[in-house]
Each structure stands twice: as structure tokens, then as C-alpha cells.
Amino acid sequence: MCYDLSLTTTIQRVADCFLEIKQDIATELDASSLVHVEGNALSPYPIVYRGQDDWQLHMNIMEWGIIQYNAKRDLEWKLKEGGTDQQWIYKEFAKKLAALRVSMLNCRCDRIWGNRNSYWFKIRDRRCLIPVDGIFEHRAIEGWKNKIPYLVKMRHEGTFFLPGMYSVVDLPDLATGVTKKYATFSLITRPANELMQKINNFGPNRGRMPLFLPFDRAMRWLDKTLPEKRYKDLLNYEIPSEELDYVPVYSIRGEWKRKDGLPPTTPYEWPGLPPLGQMEPKMPYKASEDLAQDSPAVRIKPLSRPTAPTVRFSGRIRP
Fold first, then answer.
1. Contact 210/200 with Cβ under 8 angstroms?
2. Dist CA 118 CA 1 (whole Å)
3. Three-state SS for 282?
4. What is the per-residue pLDDT across 137-170, written as a single tens digit (0 to 9) for each?
5. Paired residues of 64 in beta bridges
6. What range defines the domain where residue 203 resides?
7. Does pTM top 0.90 for this prediction?
8. Is 309 helix (H, G, I), strand (E, B) or coil?
9. What is the CATH number of the domain that holds 40?
10. Count of structural domains within the chain
């Protein structure tokens, strides 16, 4: 799967990749906040998409982790049935909404057309592109306590674009109760190629990777109309291993983040790090757990910490 992104170029240079694009970003993003973006934080991120009303290309800030259309209906039902303590209801709803969003950070490519009752099929025409300079993926090594993060890039692209899906939902602001539009996105994944199988080699979602598309294919993802056959051809594209570059980096999460002041994308030499494919972990797990991390839940599940939507929808770099 993919839960960590990196964008080091400027928003303007991303926009320059397109002949005509409307920048709807109302607030400045701190550039340092995009060097490492964690999906579990439901982070704001610049997204390129085609508007449903004017069919023009737009770039706007969206939050990672899809909010489904029925979220508003669920909240209204809880308010109707939950009594007079609306603040408590909003707080509990925020917790459960965050749990659902974390489960929808990624969308498996086979679930878009494979299940026509799924939410992914319903929003199949809400396609977007996620600009990145690289993604982080963790590798497990037999006998090592900690996983080793790798920065993975496309070899012949500077900034590249990962395909995703997006959703726009009207919801009351969970602090004020005023209805706002929230735009959220999910990143599409597919079975990993030979290289990525050796990096993403543990856990219930091992053997997955983002849908890496060369620039020309990525642009087709935003075509105004995308027939089913061409749609599936893009989803089925597997980037050759030799088209990806990878380097180990220092720990990117928790208290073990690097303390030398260098950015998290800086390569790091881990003493005794074995080559890919060696010292593979022995981590048996139940096959049913394959669905755990990115399965679009029908009902909202509880979460231990509250997280509410915070960003308001206002809406290739060649080497």
C-alpha cells in the first residue's frame, strides 16, 4: 500500500505541467509540510482534477482519505436520534468519520470495476492526479526490529503524477455547525512489480504499490471521457522495475526521525543492510487480512483518537 508521499517542487511548477489549469488554492501550503506527508494524519495535499461542472482542469487542496457521500446522511440521522447534546454527537461522529477515512486512504484498482456496488465504482469518473517527487515504502528484514524506509521515484521523471479518486461532500463544520464543502482523495494501488514486492514485503498489504503511470498515461487518466476498456488498460499498467529508482532513507515516523537537520528524502546508509531479496521476513497472516487496510467500510467504525476534517474546499516536472 502507500501511506507516505513526498513533494519537494513548488505548486507553480506542478501547474506549469498543464497547458490550461485553474489554481483554486486559497491558502498557502508550508512547503516543508509536503516533504513527507503521512496519510494517517488525513493531511491536506494539492490535487489536480477535472471539474464536474465546467470539465476544466483545476488544482486545489484536498485531504487524504475519502469521505463518502452518505456521511452527511449518517450525521443527520445521529443528530435526529441522539438528543440535545449536539457537541457530543459531533465529537463522536468526528472519531468515527476519521476511522472510515483511514480505511480509504488507498483504493485497490480491481475494486473500481470489479464490484459495481462499491463506492469506488460510484465515483469512478471523479478521477484525479496526485503530484509527487517520490513515495516512501517500508521493508522488513528478518531479525531486524525496525522496518527500513525507502524513497521510490520514477527514473525518467522529476515530479510525476499518481492516479487517484476524489469526492466532494457537504458536511456541517464539526466546530460551528455551518455547512461546508469537503474535498477528499484516495490513491489507487495495484499488485507490485518485482522490485516493489521486495520492498513492500510484510504485513497484510504486502506486495502492493501505487499505480505508477508515465506522464502521457497519467494525462489520459484525466480525459473528459474514458471508455471502460481504456480505463481498465490504465489500471492494469505495470511499470517495469527498471523504470523505478530507490534509496534507503532514515526513519520517517515517530521519535526516530533524523536529527541532523537533513530532509527525510536524503539517502541514509544503514549498517549491514542486506540487498533486496535477502533476509526476507517470515510473517504469516490470515488471507482475510488482505482486505483490512483499504476496504471501503459500509458502516463507520470507532477510533481511539478524534480527527476531523480541517481543510475547506476552495476547490510533469521534467528532469
1. no
2. 19
3. coil
4. 999 999 999 999 999 999 999 999 999 999 999 8
5. 185
6. 4-291
7. no
8. coil
9. 3.90.1680.10
10. 1
